[in-house]
Amino acid sequence: MERAQLVTRLQQILGPDGVIHRPDELTIYEYDGAFDTHEPSVVVLPTRTEQVAEIVRLANEADLPITPRGAGTGLSGGAIAKRGGIQIALTRMNRILELDYRNRRAVVEPGVINLDLSTATTPHGYYYVPDPSSQKACTIGGNVAENSGGPHCLAYGVTTNHVLALEVVLPSGDVIWTGGPGLDTAGYDLTGLIVGSEGTLGIVTKAVVRLTRLPEAVRVLLAQYDTVLDASNTVSAVIGSGIVPAAMEMMDRLVCQAVEEAYHVGFPADVGAVLLVEVDGLDEGLSYQMDRIEAICRANHARSVRIAATVEERAALWNARKMAFGAMGRLAPSYYMQDGVVPRTKLPATLARVEEVSREYDLRIANVFHAGDGNLHPLILFDRRDQGAVERVLRAGVEILQTCIDMGGTISGEHGIGLEKKEQMSLIFTADDLAAMARLKASFNPRDLFNPDKIFPSRVSCAEVREVRQDGRHATLLEQFGH
Amino acid sequence: MLGANDPKADESGSAAAEPPPGPAAEPLSPGAIAELQAVLADVAGPDSVMADERCRAYRADDLTPALVFTPGTPDDVAAALLLADGVGAAVVPWGGGTAMVLGYPPRAADLVLDLRRLGRVLAYEPADLTVSVQAGISFAALDGVLAASGQRLALDCPHPEAATLGGLVATNLAGPRRLRYGTLRDALIGIRAAHPDGTLTRGGGMVVKNVSGYDMMKLYLGSLGTLGVVVELNLKLAPRPPADGTALLYFPALEPALAAADNLLASQLLPCAVVVLDAGVAAGLGLRLAPDAAGSPSAGAVPGAVLAARFEGLQATTERQVRELGDRGRDWGALQGQALGPRLASAVWDGLLAFQALDTAPVNSALLKLSVGPGDLAAVMAGAIQVSEQVDLGCLQFADAGSGIVYLRVGQPEDRPAGVFAWALWALQMELVRRWGQSVVLSCPTEAKQNLPLWGREPAGLPVMRELKARFDPRGILNPGRFVGRM
Fold first, then answer.
1. What is the mean pLDDT of residues B375-388?
2. Closest CA to B265 of B175, B368, B356, B176
3. Which of A472, B167, B188, B207 has fewest C-beta within 10 Å?
């Protein structure tokens, strides 16, 4: 199909203001929050499910790839139209359709901004738990695609634990609902498969998500340490003591310095690490928990422990954490944020190795992360103007991922694989593992129409590997036993 | 709803379009069975294969397998699947055998894989709150290991000594405490499965947050062993709470009890389970109205409905919540409240777990589950009573109000002809499916299953589900026909 004809057909579906095709306007859709860039041939802005389905049917006819996009805040290149084609930006489908407090659920369109949902429900005593750091900008649809996390996932789980049902446009153009009115539905768990599938299995056009009652009470504690090691030992000790806080976040020396310079929150210049712990629930329980956590902090050599006495103080302590990324500009013109996960007890050893990587590659690395989950976010600081900086940064990033794998962890906790980490998938999964994932993908997306070139490593074609492997094994075993 | 493939499955490129070559209704020939037996004995030793009368212990839905294989390693499982796939033998994975009644009778059952020799804990680091186990470990064995470190897998399991973790993954059944702790869906962080092509594959990992690749755990969870055989799994754990308290509120009828449950759930109290029992279930648990100071004539009578709430946590929070529920109960129209001591409390919760447990060999009785959402519970329970009466079925029910689920037991005297019961159950289920869609018959006699839409309304995603089945089990050897859409 000629491009002009494609644009005309899309305009018939969406109206003239729903199609972006002028080169200067397309440029802003060539990147997201990660490194890779690629321009789509055309961007469409549907407002209704039926339009999405029509676009998908047209893409089938024209044999063009489709890349869905939310707010473009993703950090793994998931929203990049790597093979061009049609980009479906879902930002105009941004209505909260239903707030059903009795059944503790909300029905939203994918373009609803994460924080807007909690803002709408908080006055009624409810909130939507998953709270990625980008929650002021990122969309629920994007969260579903990436299975996003956030600080409060420690006690409450990540996006997949809060999605009950989805309306999905499949690569065939068919529209289905996964899940049902209740929590359990018969059949395979299509909802659970689609959450975190990075837009490769279907395009979510409506999501039914869980609303959670606001807790009666919340307490926040901030402990300062001389070393990251003491702070990470505290994390393991708290979890090991039988307390699972609502959130447990850590910032290292570099981050504290930047935050202090930018916002003057009162961190001493020589602080080595800061640990922020939040507990919530019933009032009586919290004092007891806070006492025990404070004792554990002190036993692990915290040099000071502060418990927020008021709502304002609590907000101030959290602000220091939430503004950490914004403060990084004080340290370097650019940073590359990695996203690795390790078992919690491996945090101290992993952080020690990150420090070594920093020395080996001569790059400053700042750490601000979800310590309670073992989810690291090393920020590798650099200046693009330095010769070979980007390449060195990427190599250091891979080295850190390899460390996470060596520690029994994995290469992404909440940002996704996308383009960024697809080659590293073969570091944690065998060809057979990837073949099983490829079978899953083919069940939904046999023509590789949705978000191609993502998640799977490019060096090997999974289908080929599988056939070779399968034939080999079949032949050996069956021949051996005379079949 | 049965049989017909989706028309779109005929398009080119669709794996589901190929004719299902799977196991025939005819059992395997004695020659093929003997051959399979010999090869399996070669794989894992002669003691690992049974072909004699001992196979009768693995009878389910009137089918006795020709062979029972007890693999000792994940590789044995993979080899068995590859061999079975080669000869088209129907494979029935078997854990504790406590839920074999679930689903349609398989089209055939040539080879049972008894996974209980795969019963080891592979890795357990208490400070990480994670554990890795083989699929054949029983819930009780795992619980014993975790208890020593003050931890647990927070899941209600009716037959802990028998039920295996692999079986729990395959069925994804859970009890009332899912309100606070979720189900196995929320605890499963890693998985390893064997496939009919002889491969063993992993998904997820040993960390509590993981978006590396597809969420393969969701593929096998609740799939009743129709896509692969789970051999290992990794779980997120929880600390064992120091205190556990239960309070009851007695009501004259179901409606005010369900309304009270709504109020409790809208409060900031943190119950781990909230259930509402009808009069029959309450009577079965021995719950009676106590004599009160006013000398009420109803003393000793069975209440019309009972709300039971369970609170786990610290002593102080548990005591406060039990007390507060009693206070609030008066405003919510409760006739009486009762705080239960530990012995009575476990009698109530164990009794409810037994109520929602699948029967192994039901006669003229069935257990149904309707997952509808909290807002529809009153209508569902009233409707269930009405329809059961119309078709002459006795009915007992309780609502897992916290999770919006009704468990319904229906039955007729055992001396009634089985065909009469089968018809009544069919009529009931048809009506429940018409009204609510989500009605699943968890257990009923085999002969009642034939024309019964026991999985409820056909899901909208069935064509995709058929594609998954066709790609993960192309010859259809895994539990053929048992699952949704007779997959």
1. 97
2. B176
3. A472
Residues of B in contact with A188 (CB under 8 A): 219, 222-223, 227, 461, 465, 468, 484
pLDDT digits 0-9 by tens, B51-100: 999 999 999 999 999 999 999 999 999 999 999 999 999 999 999 999 99
pLDDT in tens, B133-164: 999 999 999 999 999 999 999 999 999 999 99
The token pair at B373 is: 């959402």
Q: HEC string of A6-56?
A: HHHHHHHHHCHHHEECCHHHHHHHCECCCCCECCCCEEECCCCHHHHHHHH
Give yes or no for B31 touching A (CB within 8 A).
no
| Crossing angle of the two packed helices A311-322 and A253-263, in degrees rounded to 10 | 120
Tokens of A188: 């395979």
B297 lies within 8 A of chain A by CB: no
Closest CA to A457 of A472, A435, A479: A435
ipTM: 0.94
Token reading at A465: 């590997």
Question: Which amino acid, one-letter code, is at A272?
Answer: G
d(CA A133, CA A151): 8
Q: What angle do CA A358, A363, A364 make, to 5 degrees?
A: 80
C-alpha dist (Å) from residue A422 to A392, A398, B472: 19, 12, 23
| Spatial contact of A329 and A257, defined as CB atoms under 8 Å apart | no
Question: A244 and B320: CB-CB below 8 Å?
Answer: no
What torsion do the CA atoms of A200, A202, A204, A207 make, to the nearest 10 degrees? -100
- Region of residue A448 (left: phi > 0; alpha: psi -120 to 50; beta: else): left
Percent of chain A with pLDDT over 70: 95
Strand partners, A139: A113
- Name the residue of chain B whose CA is nearest to A202's CA: B464
Tell me which chain A residues have a C-beta less than 8 angstroms from the C-beta of B462.
Answer: 187
Alpha helices in A241-307 (DSSP H): 253-263, 283-299
Per the structure block, which two tokens stand in for B23?
């196991």
Closest CA to A250 of A347, A134, A367: A367
CB-CB under 8 Å, B456 with A374: no
Q: Which of A181, A345, A375 sits opposite B209 (nearest CB)?
A: A375
CA–CA gap between residue A420 and residue A56 (Å, rounded): 26
Kind of pairing between the strands at A203-210 and A105-108? antiparallel
3-state secondary structure chain B: CCCCCCHHHHCCCCHHHCCCCCCCCCCCCHHHHHHHHHHHHHHHCHHHEECCHHHHHHCECCECCCEEECCCCHHHHHHHHHHHHHHCCCEEEECCCCCCCCCCCCCCCCEEEEHHHCCCEEEEEHHHCEEEEECCCEHHHHHHHHHCCCEECCCCCCCCCCCEHHHHHHHCCCCCCHHHHCCHHHHEEEEEEECCCCCEEEEECCCCCCCCCCCCHHHHCCCCCCCCEEEEEEEECEECCCEEEEEEEEECCHHHHHHHHHHHHHCCCCCCEEEEEEHHHHHHCCCCCCCCCCCCCCCCCCCCEEEEEEEEECHHHHHHHHHHHHHHHHHCCCCEEEEECHHHHHHHHHHHHHHCCCCCCCCCEEEEEEECCHHHHHHHHHHHHHHHHHCCCEEEEEEECCCCEEEEEEECCCCCCHHHHHHHHHHHHHHHHHHHCCEEEEECCHHHCCCCCCCCCCCCCHHHHHHHHHHHCCCCCECCCCCHHHC
Residues A373 and A149 sit within 8 Å (Cβ to Cβ):
yes
Residue for token digits 């945090």? A347
Paired residues of B294 in beta bridges: none
Cα separation of B189 and B207, whole Å? 7
